[in-house]
Amino acid sequence: MGTNFSGTESEKNTLNAFIKLMRATESINNRLNRHLAEADLTVSQFGTLEALYHLGPLNQRTIGEKLLKSGGNITMVIDNLEKCGYVTRRKDPDDRRAVLIHLTPEGKRFIKNFFPKHLDRIKKEFSVLSEKEKETLADLCKKLGLREND
To answer: Average of pLDDT values for 112-118?
Structure first.
C-alpha cells in the first residue's frame, strides 16, 4: 500500500519508497526476531555476541557504535549477557581505565553454533532477490545511510 498524499510526483515517489523500505524492514525484523526470541536473545544481545565473535574483545562504546545504541542500553545488554555466562568484563591491558568485553568459552560456543542458523534465516529472507539486486540494495542503503545531515 502506497501513500495517499496528493503532492508532487517526486513527493509521492519519495513517500512510497520510504513506506516500502520501512515495511520491508519491519517485516524482515519481525521474522528474524522470532528466531532470536527462540534462543532467548534480543537483537542487541545477538549483535553484541556477533561483533565479539567476529572482531574479538571490544569496549562498550565501540559495541554501542556498531549497534547504534546508547551507552546505557549497551551496559544493560552486557549485564544480561554476563548473567547468561556469555561474556565477561576484563581490564584492558593497554589502558587501565578501560574495560574490554570478552566472550566466555560458553558464549563462543553458543554464537559459533547459533550464527550459521541465523545466517540461513537471513539468506532465506533475501532469497527473493538476485545477486545483482542484493548488491544494488546494499549500495542504495549505504547511500541513504551516509547522507550528510542538514
So the answer is: 96
